[in-house]
Amino acid sequence: MESGALASSEKEEQQGASYTYWVRKITEDAAPLPVPHKLSQEDAPHSQSQAATLGSAWNRAGTWEEKSLNNWATPRIKELLISIGSIQFSFGRAEVEDVTKCVGDAFMVIVRNKKRVGYTYELTLKVKGEWIILGEKKLVGGNIDVQEFSFGELDDLQMEVRLSEAGDILHQEKIDICNDLKLFLEPVREKLLQFEEELKYR
């Protein structure tokens, strides 16, 4: 009886001793670990369809990728708005002299292999012009603040006018000039619509 139990115990020990596992031991002779690197177009698999080429080479599945477009978008918005040129009013004219504030974000997102673009911005335009008031030419400067706006919401675009250089112009005349400057709303909207169209193809 004892000899049978002893034999069984030895058999279990032999089976236990036969179980081994491998552990990678890093030594000077071991191959170095792979270093991650950016994939090029040549590295990308050629077996995938052309439809799966949106986004970066590493995101062939097109699951989720977000890319900032600010480096292109911010200077492009400024360029478009300065190109508005001058607007003629009943008793004067004015033009966009500079874009002193252009703050926001533009981005591209790839979700489920579909590209979407968007943006949110706030603007301040520096304007200057001249009006004929009581037979005299008056130079006027001011700022147009365009409140926060986003992709697809340009129908609700709003702006506020602040005069910074109006000299001895009377209060009612200042109101009339501010109302004239609000006519920049439509050309500003047209330029931002152009920006949206260009953004779609970035």
Keywords:
202 residues, alpha+beta, 6-stranded antiparallel sheet, 4 helices, 35% strand
Notes on the structure:
- The structure is a single chain.
- This protein has 202 residues and is an alpha+beta fold.
- The chain is 28% helix and 35% strand.
- The chain has 4 helices and 6 strands.
- The protein has helices at 2-17, 70-82, 171-181, 185-200, and strands at residues 64-68, 86-88, 92-111, 114-133, 136-150, 159-165.
- Strands 1, 2, 3, 4, 5 and 6 form a 6-stranded antiparallel sheet that branches.
- A hairpin with a 3-residue loop joins strand 2 (86-88) and strand 3.
- Helix 2 runs antiparallel to helix 4.
- The radius of gyration is 34 Å and the shape is elongated.
- It starts with a helix and ends with a helix.
- The relative contact order is 0.12.
- Mean pLDDT is 81; it is low at 46-52.
